[in-house]
Records
---
Amino acid sequence: MGGVTEVDVAAAIGRIDEIIIREIVRTGASRPELRRALALAKGPGDLDADAALPPRMQRLVDLLAVALPEQGPKLPQGPKPLQGPQRRRHAAIKGIERAA
């Protein structure tokens, strides 16, 4: 059984960066290896399972993890709104702010 082609990679994960696709093809991975690496890259990540991967599978998982859309929690965009009771400012500070 031969390695995956660019068409195989695009069918599995969609059109992504051509460099990533070429690197995945260069690994010489089979279709089952690509499917397993894709599942590992999308999954929550078992550190023990990742440590035991052969170098080719680890390379595939690393490439796919970079190429796939973010799976984890989204980081807040912009400043976070204040929550909870607001602190009262001392009267002297209020006067300074007005003067400025």
Note: Confidence is low (pLDDT under 50) at residues 71-76.
---
Amino acid sequence: MQHQYQANYQQPIDYTRMLNNVLQQRHQAHLLSWDCQPSGPEHQLTYTAYAYINGQFLGSGQGNTKGQAKNAASYYVLTNLGAV
């Protein structure tokens, strides 16, 4: 009898891609812009990403990388848009 182990690993949700898809469906993808700012010591930077649609601030997020920060901000933008 062979035992099989299946890891209970779930990949994180790509909210940045989800946001791009929602904005494409609304013909607004070209209106999305980002501003990413690092903070903290060089050996332990934290990034804050700010999301703007048509120049209007809609959300921000923080992470250890720019990608993580954008993903966190995308979640809040999607929430503000009523998409999640």
Note: The chain has two helices and three strands.
---
Amino acid sequence: MMYSEYVHFYYIPFFPVGKDAFTICTRCGFKKTLRLTREFCTSHSLDYGKYRHPLRTFSGLLFIAGIILFTIVAGKFGD
């Protein structure tokens, strides 16, 4: 199972800060969490690009960028 950690403000995610792989042994039930890095993926023959962060983890940044863009456009048409 893969999951992402991200910086958030009042439950609005701004940007991801890491990816973790969560594994469970089928024989004994041992659980382990591994940090998914480029080095880990290349040493284990995995495609790092396959494990991308969902776009929703950038929603806070997109919201702020939209407000800034709106302010710039409104300022140009307001003159």
Note: Residues 2-78 form one domain.
---
Amino acid sequence: MRARVEHGAAAGDPTRPVLAIETAEDCERARHRIAALRDSTRGEDEEHELQALLDAVRNWESDHAARKG
């Protein structure tokens, strides 16, 4: 998956990564990973991953909707 990941102070929150999705294919992979995480029992790390993926997909969709509109 092509994505940029920031951790710690650079991400503004020392406990979770910030992801930036770079391709449509990676956005689809992120959606599948979100579904898998939602269907599983999550620990703290998985919860952070889920939130980071949700934010990244939201940002991807927002950026691409703005380009189309």
Note: The chain has one domain: 3-68.
